[in-house]
Protein backbone atom coordinates (compact mmCIF):
# COMPACT_ATOMS: atom_id res chain seq x y z
CA UNK A 1 0.00 0.00 0.00
CA UNK A 2 1.24 3.43 -0.92
CA UNK A 3 0.92 7.08 -0.01
CA UNK A 4 2.24 8.18 -3.42
CA UNK A 5 -0.63 9.77 -5.34
CA UNK A 6 1.13 9.92 -8.73
CA UNK A 7 -0.54 6.77 -10.14
CA UNK A 8 -3.96 7.98 -8.95
CA UNK A 9 -4.48 10.57 -11.71
CA UNK A 10 -7.93 10.27 -13.26
CA UNK A 11 -8.71 6.57 -12.72
CA UNK A 12 -11.85 4.99 -14.13
CA UNK A 13 -13.03 4.09 -10.61
CA UNK A 14 -12.32 5.60 -7.19
CA UNK A 15 -13.18 3.61 -4.07
CA UNK A 16 -13.31 5.55 -0.80
CA UNK A 17 -12.55 3.48 2.27
CA UNK A 18 -10.18 0.58 2.86
CA UNK A 19 -12.71 -1.87 4.29
CA UNK A 20 -14.22 -5.12 3.09
CA UNK A 21 -16.84 -3.40 0.90
CA UNK A 22 -14.29 -1.54 -1.23
CA UNK A 23 -12.03 -4.60 -1.26
CA UNK A 24 -14.93 -6.73 -2.51
CA UNK A 25 -15.93 -4.25 -5.20
CA UNK A 26 -12.32 -4.00 -6.35
CA UNK A 27 -12.24 -7.81 -6.59
CA UNK A 28 -15.48 -7.98 -8.57
CA UNK A 29 -14.28 -5.29 -10.97
CA UNK A 30 -11.12 -7.31 -11.43
CA UNK A 31 -13.32 -10.17 -12.63
CA UNK A 32 -15.74 -8.31 -14.92
CA UNK A 33 -13.71 -5.25 -15.99
CA UNK A 34 -10.01 -6.09 -15.57
CA UNK A 35 -8.98 -3.29 -17.96
CA UNK A 36 -10.48 -0.52 -15.79
CA UNK A 37 -8.10 1.54 -13.67
CA UNK A 38 -9.08 1.52 -9.99
CA UNK A 39 -7.77 3.64 -7.12
CA UNK A 40 -8.57 3.24 -3.41
CA UNK A 41 -8.22 5.97 -0.78
CA UNK A 42 -8.10 5.01 2.91
CA UNK A 43 -7.77 7.71 5.56
CA UNK A 44 -6.11 5.46 8.14
CA UNK A 45 -2.55 4.16 8.22
CA UNK A 46 -3.68 0.70 7.03
CA UNK A 47 -6.65 -0.97 5.41
CA UNK A 48 -9.25 -2.78 7.55
CA UNK A 49 -8.69 -0.43 10.46
CA UNK A 50 -12.33 0.36 11.22
CA UNK A 51 -15.40 -1.91 11.10
CA UNK A 52 -13.62 -4.57 9.04
CA UNK A 53 -11.00 -5.02 11.76
CA UNK A 54 -11.48 -8.35 13.56
CA UNK A 55 -11.80 -6.77 17.03
CA UNK A 56 -14.26 -4.22 15.69
CA UNK A 57 -16.95 -6.71 14.69
CA UNK A 58 -18.40 -9.96 15.94
CA UNK A 59 -17.03 -11.89 12.94
CA UNK A 60 -20.00 -14.21 12.96
CA UNK A 61 -20.20 -14.83 9.25
CA UNK A 62 -23.88 -13.89 9.35
CA UNK A 63 -25.75 -16.78 7.80
CA UNK A 64 -28.91 -16.40 9.94
CA UNK A 65 -28.22 -19.77 11.53
CA UNK A 66 -28.34 -18.42 15.06
CA UNK A 67 -29.39 -14.74 15.01
CA UNK A 68 -32.90 -14.77 16.44
CA UNK A 69 -33.73 -11.21 15.36
CA UNK A 70 -33.79 -12.50 11.76
CA UNK A 71 -36.65 -14.91 12.63
CA UNK A 72 -39.31 -12.78 14.36
CA UNK A 73 -42.42 -14.29 15.90
CA UNK A 74 -45.79 -12.94 14.78
CA UNK A 75 -48.79 -12.16 17.02
CA UNK A 76 -50.17 -15.64 16.32
CA UNK A 77 -46.92 -17.32 17.38
CA UNK A 78 -45.80 -18.17 13.85
CA UNK A 79 -42.18 -17.49 12.92
CA UNK A 80 -41.23 -15.64 9.73
CA UNK A 81 -37.97 -16.99 8.27
CA UNK A 82 -38.01 -14.90 5.07
CA UNK A 83 -35.20 -12.58 6.14
CA UNK A 84 -33.15 -15.48 7.48
CA UNK A 85 -33.38 -17.31 4.14
CA UNK A 86 -32.31 -14.18 2.26
CA UNK A 87 -29.30 -13.55 4.51
CA UNK A 88 -28.25 -17.20 4.34
CA UNK A 89 -28.34 -17.09 0.55
CA UNK A 90 -26.39 -13.83 0.53
CA UNK A 91 -23.68 -15.32 2.72
CA UNK A 92 -23.58 -18.30 0.37
CA UNK A 93 -22.88 -15.84 -2.47
CA UNK A 94 -19.94 -14.46 -0.49
CA UNK A 95 -18.58 -17.95 0.10
CA UNK A 96 -18.86 -18.81 -3.59
CA UNK A 97 -16.94 -15.71 -4.59
CA UNK A 98 -14.25 -16.31 -1.97
CA UNK A 99 -13.95 -19.87 -3.28
CA UNK A 100 -13.50 -18.53 -6.81
CA UNK A 101 -10.75 -16.20 -5.64
CA UNK A 102 -9.01 -19.03 -3.76
CA UNK A 103 -9.12 -21.21 -6.88
CA UNK A 104 -7.74 -18.27 -8.85
CA UNK A 105 -4.73 -18.01 -6.58
CA UNK A 106 -5.73 -15.70 -3.68
CA UNK A 107 -2.61 -15.55 -1.53
CA UNK A 108 -2.67 -17.52 1.71
CA UNK A 109 -4.79 -20.31 3.10
CA UNK A 110 -8.59 -19.94 3.48
CA UNK A 111 -8.01 -20.70 7.15
CA UNK A 112 -6.42 -17.27 7.37
CA UNK A 113 -9.90 -15.74 7.19
CA UNK A 114 -12.60 -18.41 7.65
CA UNK A 115 -12.92 -21.38 10.01
CA UNK A 116 -15.81 -23.72 10.91
CA UNK A 117 -17.57 -22.93 14.19
CA UNK A 118 -21.01 -24.29 15.18
CA UNK A 119 -23.75 -21.66 15.49
CA UNK A 120 -26.21 -22.08 18.38
CA UNK A 121 -29.40 -20.22 19.30
CA UNK A 122 -30.25 -20.39 23.02
CA UNK A 123 -33.39 -19.39 24.93
CA UNK A 124 -34.89 -19.91 28.38
CA UNK A 125 -38.42 -20.10 29.76
CA UNK A 126 -41.60 -21.66 28.45
CA UNK A 127 -42.23 -18.88 25.95
CA UNK A 128 -38.69 -19.24 24.65
CA UNK A 129 -39.01 -23.00 24.33
CA UNK A 130 -42.29 -22.68 22.41
CA UNK A 131 -40.76 -20.07 20.10
CA UNK A 132 -37.67 -22.19 19.49
CA UNK A 133 -39.75 -25.24 18.64
CA UNK A 134 -41.82 -23.25 16.12
CA UNK A 135 -38.74 -21.55 14.72
CA UNK A 136 -36.95 -24.85 14.20
CA UNK A 137 -39.93 -26.31 12.35
CA UNK A 138 -40.15 -23.27 10.08
CA UNK A 139 -36.41 -23.18 9.37
CA UNK A 140 -36.04 -26.93 8.86
CA UNK A 141 -38.63 -26.75 6.09
CA UNK A 142 -36.22 -24.56 4.09
CA UNK A 143 -33.49 -26.35 2.10
CA UNK A 144 -30.83 -23.78 3.09
CA UNK A 145 -31.31 -24.74 6.75
CA UNK A 146 -31.21 -28.49 6.27
CA UNK A 147 -29.47 -30.22 9.15
CA UNK A 148 -30.42 -27.65 11.79
CA UNK A 149 -30.63 -29.50 15.13
CA UNK A 150 -33.03 -28.76 17.98
CA UNK A 151 -33.16 -29.77 21.63
CA UNK A 152 -34.73 -28.77 24.92
CA UNK A 153 -32.83 -31.44 26.84
CA UNK A 154 -30.42 -29.87 29.38
CA UNK A 155 -28.12 -32.89 29.11
CA UNK A 156 -27.74 -32.43 25.37
CA UNK A 157 -27.20 -28.71 25.82
CA UNK A 158 -24.51 -29.43 28.41
CA UNK A 159 -22.64 -31.16 25.57
CA UNK A 160 -23.34 -28.43 23.00
CA UNK A 161 -22.54 -25.40 25.19
CA UNK A 162 -21.04 -26.52 28.52
CA UNK A 163 -19.95 -23.02 29.52
CA UNK A 164 -23.49 -21.70 29.11
CA UNK A 165 -25.10 -24.59 31.01
CA UNK A 166 -22.67 -24.98 33.93
CA UNK A 167 -24.19 -23.59 37.12
CA UNK A 168 -27.61 -23.00 35.58
CA UNK A 169 -30.64 -23.87 37.79
CA UNK A 170 -31.62 -27.49 37.19
CA UNK A 171 -35.31 -26.58 36.87
CA UNK A 172 -34.79 -23.80 34.33
CA UNK A 173 -36.50 -24.41 30.99
CA UNK A 174 -34.00 -24.20 28.15
CA UNK A 175 -34.06 -24.80 24.40
CA UNK A 176 -31.65 -24.39 21.52
CA UNK A 177 -30.86 -25.05 17.89
CA UNK A 178 -27.42 -25.83 16.49
CA UNK A 179 -25.94 -25.75 13.01
CA UNK A 180 -22.60 -27.32 12.20
CA UNK A 181 -22.47 -25.19 9.04
CA UNK A 182 -21.52 -22.03 10.94
CA UNK A 183 -18.25 -20.16 10.53
CA UNK A 184 -16.07 -17.52 12.12
CA UNK A 185 -14.73 -14.93 9.68
CA UNK A 186 -11.77 -12.63 10.19
CA UNK A 187 -12.84 -9.83 7.89
CA UNK A 188 -9.65 -7.90 8.57
CA UNK A 189 -7.52 -10.72 7.20
CA UNK A 190 -9.90 -11.19 4.26
CA UNK A 191 -9.81 -7.48 3.45
CA UNK A 192 -6.01 -7.42 3.44
CA UNK A 193 -5.89 -10.51 1.20
CA UNK A 194 -8.37 -8.98 -1.26
CA UNK A 195 -6.48 -5.70 -1.46
CA UNK A 196 -3.19 -7.53 -1.80
CA UNK A 197 -4.54 -9.46 -4.78
CA UNK A 198 -6.01 -6.25 -6.22
CA UNK A 199 -2.64 -4.50 -6.02
CA UNK A 200 -1.06 -7.41 -7.86
CA UNK A 201 -3.54 -6.68 -10.69
CA UNK A 202 -2.59 -2.99 -10.78
CA UNK A 203 -5.13 -1.44 -8.38
CA UNK A 204 -3.58 1.50 -6.49
CA UNK A 205 -4.35 1.37 -2.76
CA UNK A 206 -3.38 4.56 -0.91
CA UNK A 207 -3.40 4.86 2.88
CA UNK A 208 -3.21 8.03 5.00
CA UNK A 209 -5.28 9.72 2.29
CA UNK A 210 -8.52 11.31 3.46
CA UNK A 211 -11.16 12.28 0.93
CA UNK A 212 -12.33 15.71 2.04
CA UNK A 213 -14.67 16.72 -0.77
CA UNK A 214 -16.44 15.39 -3.84
CA UNK A 215 -18.27 17.25 -6.58
CA UNK A 216 -19.86 16.58 -9.96
CA UNK A 217 -18.14 18.19 -12.95
CA UNK A 218 -19.87 19.55 -16.03
CA UNK A 219 -18.60 16.57 -18.04
CA UNK A 220 -20.36 14.17 -15.64
CA UNK A 221 -17.19 12.98 -13.92
CA UNK A 222 -16.54 13.35 -10.21
CA UNK A 223 -13.79 15.48 -8.72
CA UNK A 224 -12.38 13.87 -5.58
CA UNK A 225 -10.29 16.04 -3.27
CA UNK A 226 -7.78 14.07 -1.22
CA UNK A 227 -5.64 15.28 1.69
CA UNK A 228 -2.52 13.48 2.90
CA UNK A 229 -3.06 13.04 6.66
CA UNK A 230 0.70 13.09 7.29
CA UNK A 231 1.97 15.92 5.08
CA UNK A 232 -1.25 17.87 4.69
CA UNK A 233 -0.80 17.99 0.91
CA UNK A 234 -4.01 18.15 -1.12
CA UNK A 235 -4.78 17.23 -4.69
CA UNK A 236 -7.79 16.39 -6.83
CA UNK A 237 -8.41 13.39 -9.05
CA UNK A 238 -11.26 12.87 -11.49
CA UNK A 239 -13.18 9.65 -12.05
CA UNK A 240 -16.05 8.21 -14.06
CA UNK A 241 -17.39 6.21 -11.10
CA UNK A 242 -17.15 6.87 -7.37
CA UNK A 243 -17.98 4.36 -4.64
CA UNK A 244 -18.15 5.58 -1.05
CA UNK A 245 -17.60 2.54 1.16
CA UNK A 246 -16.23 4.45 4.11
CA UNK A 247 -18.44 2.95 6.82
CA UNK A 248 -19.64 5.69 9.12
CA UNK A 249 -17.73 8.20 6.98
CA UNK A 250 -19.97 7.52 3.98
CA UNK A 251 -22.86 9.77 5.00
CA UNK A 252 -20.87 13.05 5.19
CA UNK A 253 -19.24 12.42 1.81
CA UNK A 254 -22.55 11.59 0.13
CA UNK A 255 -23.95 14.78 1.61
CA UNK A 256 -21.02 16.72 0.12
CA UNK A 257 -21.76 15.11 -3.23
CA UNK A 258 -25.15 16.86 -3.00
CA UNK A 259 -27.01 14.08 -4.80
CA UNK A 260 -30.80 14.31 -4.37
CA UNK A 261 -30.96 10.65 -3.31
CA UNK A 262 -29.21 11.38 0.01
CA UNK A 263 -31.78 13.96 1.10
CA UNK A 264 -33.62 12.91 4.24
CA UNK A 265 -30.90 10.45 5.31
CA UNK A 266 -29.22 10.79 8.67
CA UNK A 267 -27.11 8.62 10.91
CA UNK A 268 -27.10 7.66 14.57
CA UNK A 269 -23.75 6.38 15.87
CA UNK A 270 -23.61 3.58 18.44
CA UNK A 271 -20.40 2.28 19.95
CA UNK A 272 -20.27 -1.44 20.69
CA UNK A 273 -18.31 -2.89 23.59
CA UNK A 274 -17.54 -6.53 24.40
CA UNK A 275 -16.16 -8.52 27.28
CA UNK A 276 -13.25 -10.66 26.14
CA UNK A 277 -11.35 -13.58 27.62
CA UNK A 278 -8.31 -15.48 26.41
CA UNK A 279 -8.48 -18.04 29.21
CA UNK A 280 -7.54 -21.41 27.66
CA UNK A 281 -9.88 -23.20 30.08
CA UNK A 282 -12.87 -21.05 29.11
CA UNK A 283 -12.11 -21.10 25.40
CA UNK A 284 -11.77 -24.88 25.35
CA UNK A 285 -15.17 -25.16 27.05
CA UNK A 286 -16.94 -23.04 24.45
CA UNK A 287 -16.30 -24.07 20.86
CA UNK A 288 -19.31 -22.30 19.37
CA UNK A 289 -21.10 -19.04 18.73
CA UNK A 290 -24.23 -18.72 20.85
CA UNK A 291 -26.91 -16.09 20.30
CA UNK A 292 -29.69 -15.38 22.80
CA UNK A 293 -32.75 -13.14 22.77
CA UNK A 294 -32.74 -9.39 23.31
CA UNK A 295 -34.50 -8.16 26.43
CA UNK A 296 -38.11 -7.05 25.97
CA UNK A 297 -38.15 -3.56 24.47
CA UNK A 298 -34.43 -3.61 23.62
CA UNK A 299 -33.29 -2.92 20.03
CA UNK A 300 -31.95 -5.67 17.73
CA UNK A 301 -28.38 -4.45 18.25
CA UNK A 302 -28.59 -5.59 21.89
CA UNK A 303 -28.92 -9.34 21.18
CA UNK A 304 -26.51 -11.05 23.61
CA UNK A 305 -24.03 -13.49 22.13
CA UNK A 306 -20.97 -15.44 23.22
CA UNK A 307 -18.64 -15.90 20.27
CA UNK A 308 -15.60 -18.05 19.73
CA UNK A 309 -13.09 -15.99 17.71
CA UNK A 310 -9.92 -17.01 15.91
CA UNK A 311 -7.77 -13.96 15.24
CA UNK A 312 -4.11 -14.08 14.23
CA UNK A 313 -3.96 -17.73 15.24
CA UNK A 314 -5.26 -17.17 18.79
CA UNK A 315 -8.65 -18.19 20.18
CA UNK A 316 -10.70 -15.84 22.34
CA UNK A 317 -14.28 -15.49 23.55
CA UNK A 318 -16.29 -12.31 23.14
CA UNK A 319 -19.50 -11.57 25.01
CA UNK A 320 -21.78 -8.64 24.37
CA UNK A 321 -22.64 -6.32 22.98
CA UNK A 322 -22.77 -3.53 25.50
CA UNK A 323 -23.72 -0.24 23.90
CA UNK A 324 -21.81 2.96 24.31
CA UNK A 325 -22.25 6.34 22.70
CA UNK A 326 -19.92 8.68 20.86
CA UNK A 327 -20.84 11.36 18.34
CA UNK A 328 -18.01 10.04 16.14
CA UNK A 329 -18.99 8.20 12.95
CA UNK A 330 -15.68 6.28 12.97
CA UNK A 331 -13.42 5.19 15.83
CA UNK A 332 -10.84 7.57 14.39
CA UNK A 333 -13.49 10.18 13.58
CA UNK A 334 -14.36 13.57 15.03
CA UNK A 335 -16.70 14.48 17.87
CA UNK A 336 -18.29 16.87 15.39
CA UNK A 337 -19.34 14.07 13.00
CA UNK A 338 -22.90 13.79 14.31
CA UNK A 339 -23.73 17.50 14.67
CA UNK A 340 -22.19 18.34 11.29
CA UNK A 341 -24.30 15.61 9.64
CA UNK A 342 -27.53 17.38 10.60
CA UNK A 343 -28.78 19.31 7.57
CA UNK A 344 -31.98 21.12 6.72
CA UNK A 345 -33.06 18.20 4.51
CA UNK A 346 -32.65 15.53 7.23
CA UNK A 347 -33.53 17.48 10.38
CA UNK A 348 -37.14 16.30 10.22
CA UNK A 349 -36.07 12.65 9.91
CA UNK A 350 -33.69 12.92 12.85
CA UNK A 351 -36.15 14.72 15.10
CA UNK A 352 -38.82 12.19 14.17
CA UNK A 353 -36.59 9.31 15.25
CA UNK A 354 -35.75 11.14 18.48
CA UNK A 355 -39.48 11.18 19.25
CA UNK A 356 -40.33 7.63 18.20
CA UNK A 357 -37.27 5.70 19.41
CA UNK A 358 -37.66 6.33 23.13
CA UNK A 359 -36.96 2.66 23.86
CA UNK A 360 -33.59 2.96 22.14
CA UNK A 361 -32.83 6.14 24.08
CA UNK A 362 -33.67 4.46 27.38
CA UNK A 363 -31.58 1.43 26.40
CA UNK A 364 -28.53 3.53 25.56
CA UNK A 365 -28.79 5.57 28.74
CA UNK A 366 -29.09 2.40 30.78
CA UNK A 367 -26.06 0.89 29.05
CA UNK A 368 -23.98 4.02 29.60
CA UNK A 369 -24.83 4.09 33.30
CA UNK A 370 -24.01 0.42 33.87
CA UNK A 371 -21.30 -0.29 36.41
CA UNK A 372 -18.66 -2.96 35.86
CA UNK A 373 -20.55 -5.15 38.29
CA UNK A 374 -23.81 -4.70 36.37
CA UNK A 375 -22.09 -5.65 33.13
CA UNK A 376 -20.72 -8.75 34.79
CA UNK A 377 -24.22 -9.67 35.96
CA UNK A 378 -25.37 -9.51 32.34
CA UNK A 379 -22.59 -11.93 31.49
CA UNK A 380 -23.50 -14.33 34.31
CA UNK A 381 -27.09 -14.49 33.05
CA UNK A 382 -25.52 -16.10 29.99
CA UNK A 383 -22.48 -17.77 31.58
CA UNK A 384 -23.54 -18.47 35.19
CA UNK A 385 -20.08 -19.33 36.58
CA UNK A 386 -18.19 -16.49 34.87
CA UNK A 387 -15.54 -14.84 37.05
CA UNK A 388 -15.14 -11.10 36.61
CA UNK A 389 -11.33 -11.34 36.77
CA UNK A 390 -11.24 -13.51 33.63
CA UNK A 391 -12.82 -10.88 31.39
CA UNK A 392 -11.73 -7.46 30.14
CA UNK A 393 -13.74 -4.85 28.23
CA UNK A 394 -12.84 -3.86 24.66
CA UNK A 395 -14.42 -1.23 22.44
CA UNK A 396 -15.51 -2.41 19.02
CA UNK A 397 -16.12 -0.29 15.93
CA UNK A 398 -18.62 2.52 15.56
CA UNK A 399 -21.91 1.56 13.93
CA UNK A 400 -23.89 4.35 12.30
CA UNK A 401 -27.51 3.24 12.11
CA UNK A 402 -29.43 4.59 9.12
CA UNK A 403 -32.10 7.22 9.65
CA UNK A 404 -34.33 7.78 6.64
CA UNK A 405 -37.63 9.34 5.72
CA UNK A 406 -40.51 6.89 5.34
CA UNK A 407 -42.06 7.79 1.96
CA UNK A 408 -45.47 6.55 3.12
CA UNK A 409 -45.69 8.66 6.28
CA UNK A 410 -43.00 11.28 5.74
CA UNK A 411 -41.65 10.51 9.20
CA UNK A 412 -38.12 9.59 10.15
CA UNK A 413 -37.45 5.92 10.86
CA UNK A 414 -34.41 4.16 12.29
CA UNK A 415 -33.28 1.27 10.10
CA UNK A 416 -31.25 -1.60 11.51
CA UNK A 417 -29.51 -2.82 8.39
CA UNK A 418 -27.76 -1.51 5.31
CA UNK A 419 -28.87 0.93 2.63
CA UNK A 420 -27.36 1.40 -0.81
CA UNK A 421 -27.68 4.96 -2.13
CA UNK A 422 -27.12 5.47 -5.87
CA UNK A 423 -27.06 8.85 -7.61
CA UNK A 424 -25.68 10.76 -10.57
CA UNK A 425 -27.30 8.42 -13.11
CA UNK A 426 -25.32 5.55 -11.59
CA UNK A 427 -21.98 7.37 -11.44
CA UNK A 428 -21.84 7.45 -7.63
CA UNK A 429 -22.90 4.95 -4.97
CA UNK A 430 -22.49 4.70 -1.23
CA UNK A 431 -23.33 2.16 1.43
CA UNK A 432 -24.84 3.19 4.76
CA UNK A 433 -25.68 1.17 7.87
CA UNK A 434 -24.42 -1.88 9.71
CA UNK A 435 -25.40 -5.54 10.27
CA UNK A 436 -25.34 -7.97 8.51
CA UNK A 437 -22.80 -5.87 6.65
CA UNK A 438 -19.53 -7.61 5.90
CA UNK A 439 -21.00 -11.11 5.59
CA UNK A 440 -23.18 -10.01 2.69
CA UNK A 441 -20.54 -7.79 1.06
CA UNK A 442 -20.50 -9.69 -2.22
CA UNK A 443 -24.27 -9.47 -2.67
CA UNK A 444 -24.17 -5.78 -1.77
CA UNK A 445 -21.44 -5.06 -4.30
CA UNK A 446 -23.20 -7.11 -6.99
CA UNK A 447 -26.17 -4.80 -6.42
CA UNK A 448 -23.83 -1.85 -6.96
CA UNK A 449 -22.80 -3.30 -10.34
CA UNK A 450 -26.40 -4.00 -11.33
CA UNK A 451 -27.71 -0.56 -10.40
CA UNK A 452 -24.76 1.48 -11.62
CA UNK A 453 -23.89 -0.43 -14.79
CA UNK A 454 -27.22 -1.87 -16.02
CA UNK A 455 -26.09 -1.65 -19.66
CA UNK A 456 -23.10 -3.93 -18.97
CA UNK A 457 -24.67 -6.59 -16.74
CA UNK A 458 -25.85 -8.78 -19.62
CA UNK A 459 -22.29 -8.99 -20.96
CA UNK A 460 -20.88 -9.55 -17.47
CA UNK A 461 -23.41 -12.20 -16.46
CA UNK A 462 -21.57 -15.31 -17.82
CA UNK A 463 -18.37 -14.25 -16.06
CA UNK A 464 -20.23 -13.58 -12.81
CA UNK A 465 -22.00 -16.93 -13.02
CA UNK A 466 -18.69 -18.67 -13.52
CA UNK A 467 -17.39 -17.06 -10.33
CA UNK A 468 -20.70 -17.32 -8.45
CA UNK A 469 -22.78 -20.26 -9.74
CA UNK A 470 -25.93 -19.14 -7.91
CA UNK A 471 -25.78 -15.58 -9.30
CA UNK A 472 -29.29 -14.62 -10.40
CA UNK A 473 -30.82 -17.76 -8.83
CA UNK A 474 -32.27 -18.64 -5.43
CA UNK A 475 -30.45 -21.50 -3.73
CA UNK A 476 -33.47 -22.21 -1.56
CA UNK A 477 -35.46 -22.97 -4.72
CA UNK A 478 -32.82 -25.27 -6.22
CA UNK A 479 -31.70 -28.03 -3.80
CA UNK A 480 -29.41 -29.61 -6.41
CA UNK A 481 -27.52 -26.36 -6.98
CA UNK A 482 -27.46 -25.76 -3.23
CA UNK A 483 -25.82 -29.14 -2.61
CA UNK A 484 -23.30 -28.55 -5.40
CA UNK A 485 -22.38 -25.08 -4.14
CA UNK A 486 -22.05 -26.23 -0.53
CA UNK A 487 -19.81 -29.15 -1.42
CA UNK A 488 -17.54 -27.01 -3.56
CA UNK A 489 -17.20 -24.09 -1.13
CA UNK A 490 -16.63 -26.36 1.85
CA UNK A 491 -13.84 -28.16 0.03
CA UNK A 492 -12.20 -25.03 -1.41
CA UNK A 493 -12.47 -23.01 1.81
CA UNK A 494 -11.29 -26.02 3.84
CA UNK A 495 -14.40 -26.14 6.04
CA UNK A 496 -14.70 -29.91 6.25
CA UNK A 497 -13.00 -30.18 9.61
TrEMBL record:
Keywords, comma-separated and alphabetical: FAD, Flavoprotein, Oxidoreductase, Tricarboxylic acid cycle
GO molecular function, one term: (S)-2-hydroxyglutarate dehydrogenase activity
Pathway membership, UniProt: Carbohydrate metabolism; tricarboxylic acid cycle; oxaloacetate from (S)-malate (quinone route): step 1/1
Gene3D superfamilies, sorted: D-Amino Acid Oxidase, subunit A, domain 2, FAD/NAD(P)-binding domain
Reaction(s) the record says it catalyses: (S)-malate + a quinone = a quinol + oxaloacetate
Group of enzyme by EC: oxidoreductase
InterPro entries (UniProt xref): FAD/NAD-bd_sf (IPR036188), MQO (IPR006231)
GO biological process: tricarboxylic acid cycle
UniProt EC number: 1.1.5.4
Top-level taxon in the UniProt lineage: Bacteria
Cofactors that this protein relies on: FAD
Family statement: Belongs to the MQO family.
Cited PANTHER family: L-2-HYDROXYGLUTARATE DEHYDROGENASE, MITOCHONDRIAL (PTHR43104)
NCBIfam families: mal_quin_oxido, PRK05257.2-1, PRK05257.3-2, PRK13339.1
Name recorded for this polypeptide: Probable malate:quinone oxidoreductase
Native species: Geodermatophilus poikilotrophus
The gene coding this protein: mqo
Amino acid sequence: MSTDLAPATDPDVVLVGGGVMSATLASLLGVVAPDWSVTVFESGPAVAGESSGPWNNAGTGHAALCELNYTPAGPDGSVDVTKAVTINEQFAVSRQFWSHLVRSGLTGSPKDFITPVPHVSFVTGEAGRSYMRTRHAAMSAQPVFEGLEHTDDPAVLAEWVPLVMAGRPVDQVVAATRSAAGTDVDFGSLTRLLFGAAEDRGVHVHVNQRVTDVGRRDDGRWSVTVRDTVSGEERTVRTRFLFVGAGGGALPLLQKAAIPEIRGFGGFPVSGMFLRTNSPELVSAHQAKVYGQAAVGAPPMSVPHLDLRLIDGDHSLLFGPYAGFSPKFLKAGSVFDLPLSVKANNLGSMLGVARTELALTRYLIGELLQSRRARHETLTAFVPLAEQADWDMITAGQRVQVIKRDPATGRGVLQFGTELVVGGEGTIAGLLGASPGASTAVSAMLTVLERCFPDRIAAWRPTLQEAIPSYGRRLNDDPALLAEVRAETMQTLELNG
